[in-house]
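Example 3.2
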Amino acid sequence: MRLRAAAVALVAASALVLTACTGTGTETGTGGPDRATGTGSPSADGPDREQARDQARALAVLGAVTTTTAGTMRLADGLVPPTNRWFSGLVYGAAPQPVFPTPISWQVTDDGFAAGLPVVSATEKTIAGGAVQQVGLDLGADRTLVSAYDQVSVTVEHRDGDRVVGHTVLAQGSPLVSYTAKAGQTVRATSSITATGDGPDGTTTGTIAADGRTWGVVTSGDVSGSAIELGRGGTVVLFPVPDDATGKQVRALSTAAASPLQQVTLARSSTGTATHGEQRTALGYRTAARGDTVIVPQPGQGATGLDCTGLHYATITGDAPVCTGDVLRFAAPSLQADDRLDLSRLSSSERDELTGQVRADAGAVSEASFGADSYGGGKDLYRVANLYRLATQLDLDDVAAGLREQVVTQIDQWTDPEGCGVSGTRCFRYDDTVKGLVGQAPSYGSDEFNDHHFHYGYLLSAAAVVADGSDDLVAKWAPVLDLVAADIASPEATASFPELRVYDPYAQHSWASGYSPFADGNNQESSSEAVSAWNGLARWGTVSGSRSTAELGSWLLANEAVSAQRDVLDPDLRAFPGFEHTIVSLNWGGKRDHATWFSADPAAPAGIELIPMPAVATEYVAAGGKRQIARVLDEAVPEGDYAVQFGDYLLMYRALASGSQATAALAAARDLPAEDIDTGNTRSYLLAWIMARG
């Protein structure tokens, strides 16, 4: 998400108390420990209570924004506002937007809701699976609000005026629409229900057919035509019947769907080492009966411990398996967070060349080199910090000292708790309505909570490089930088910040739009800047001595990198023959695009998935090997001319293909026009990155 949301034309107290559970440690048994350390609402006690108080004190010193951009929110009292979620469009904006809890779509209607299994299609640049209305319930409701949520699920409260009618629970990875009545009522389906028999625990099963799709119905109420009479706490669960399902399979799915979904817990753990280990995720799908339910892993995610039916749902990422069970488990290979290039194999002539280039680039750095906004300024800090790192590696003590002084001066401004009262920019204030930090020179809609992980990841990365080994700098910067880290990746919800603001543990990637005012759901463009952000978070955790921050950063880093490989850089597109490109550069809840927010240039889709090429990028961006690299570059620079936006990163990417390609990339990098080197990069770092591949 890069375009300011307000400038984009928009396309067209609960009976169920849900809590988000986050655990760490060894997982055992069916479901693992799933130790609760966070909730959808702020935690009032527990081991991190003192940390929450420290946050509140630090934020009071920072001061508050003069105005918030949030507007009226459809959100229950006591909940931390959920920005950057797959369901944020239900909370913000003039009217609720459709949402896409994979594999279905769901949207609010004038009197209730409608759901559908999107019909997936592909054109040259788009794989589409927009919202459809195949089935729905008239609840007699006229408005909604989000009454509870966790990292994967959301509870929508339906009201008629001030009277609560009932609640609907939706979740990523679940095809179920689970409705529970607050009091006795009669609801009406959009079509007549064909009874199919008795379900478990006194429920009735049936089907609804509409628009070429059959939906299963399981209810505790009495069915007559399209009407369902529910008692207090009565339930209706809807699910799309997979193609080619037999009667026996439909009955089995109805049994698994009979108990309404209530929440999804999150447990994370790691095994092995940072270079030879795994970052594990367990999502526990909890129903009212605490039994098995229907779970739909993403294609390629695996189905460990689940009983899969052999049936599938078509989704925008491919055919997703339909399984039953209570926990979705998957793992991502660990990546070592890294901000240091390995220059040990450089020849003496390469070191001499690089030394001269570092001196030249350092000579061009001045106070005017640093922007005042959190994105541009963050990239500038990142660029000069990497130059400083190269100077230290090349034993250029005089150059390193000068660069360090300039970066320290700039980060001192960003981390001055009273800095906004001095300069008005290069500082943060706190939005007490939305519960987050906002840089006081907004860019790309950052005041609307767009792209915070991209922006703040650069700042954390730069600080980690320069403060490495300096207890004094860590002590000086940590009061504000720990707040910056908490804004994008708080391990639990506190009174000041939401849990894991941007990251979706089911999708394994982040969402970039704060308020998500789109009919296609939320979106993320730059997977690489997300990976870089988590690399920076992990490095800041290590440098600042926060083991918990480092571990959380490592888990986020590994998962976001896996998603970047699977969904962006080397996606399996065999199910979409109409799509004519090799990478997907803009992922939405309801579609996938080969496009960017900012440029129609053919180099832009690939380049935005490479920027800013930290050292850790070598571990994942070459997904698909030299063949995929060649295909991507054939599209991005068809004439072989790298004098384009992101040409520097494309050359670095080319160098990963082979030794001969690295040699060719190095020659081209030497001659690349200065204006085609990104503001987050220097020619020094460009050359060093390619030389290190030799």
